[in-house]
Amino acid sequence: MLQWLHRPGLAGNDAPDRNRRAFTTSLVAGLIATAFSGRLFAVSTDRSIEVWTGPSCGCCKEWVKHLQANGFDVLSHEGGNSDARKRLGMPARYGSCHTAEIDGYAVEGHVPAREIHRLVEEKPQAIGLSVPAMPRGSPGMDGPAYDNVQDPYDVLLIARDGSASVFESYR
Ligand SMILES: [Cu+2]
Predict the structure, then answer these.
(1) C-alpha distance from residue 154 to each of 4, 136, 166 (Å)
(2) How far is the CA of 146 from the centre of ligand 1 (A)?
């Protein structure tokens, strides 16, 4: 677009008005296209997330499937969740069956993909997100295998001082 702007000969054109109009139109179209593709990029492109599960954890695998179905590129390790939780600074009291890392944030437990997307878009000052324990009805703990039971639960935003606030509520 800048090359277009500095293209020689434009200033000396004998139809400056039409040229200026064409230039403005293409500039606006370009800006819209750029903004739009930026938005599409944020929504539809795979995001990389690394997961450490508990040893032989079935619901962890189900949660990984949920992430994959919702635009995440998942690198999953069998085991290692406690070490990952410690390394990322997620307090043990918010612990669950698996720990993930994305953009330097810890994601503990059965956090819905929707809140992870929101986390990396909003980039709050925080350790990360947690759904403590394993509420039924959360992604990976849902469906007929759990008799479709829906426990109320909160997605917590864990601040750097270890305090928690409600990031999203499912009830
Ligand atoms: Cu689980």
Answers:
(1) 52, 12, 6
(2) 12
- Whole-angstrom Cα Rg for the chain: 23
**Spatial contact of 116 and 102, defined as CB atoms under 8 Å apart:** yes
Please give the model's pTM, rounded to 2 decimal places. Answer: 0.75
- 139 CA distance to ligand 1 middle (Å): 9
Residues across the chain: 171
Phi and psi angles of residue 58, each rounded to the nearest 5 degrees, phi first: -70, -45
Distance 140 CA to ligand 1 centre (A): 7
Q: For 48-61, write each residue's pLDDT tens digit.
A: 999 999 999 999 99
CA of 105 to the centre of ligand 1 (A): 19
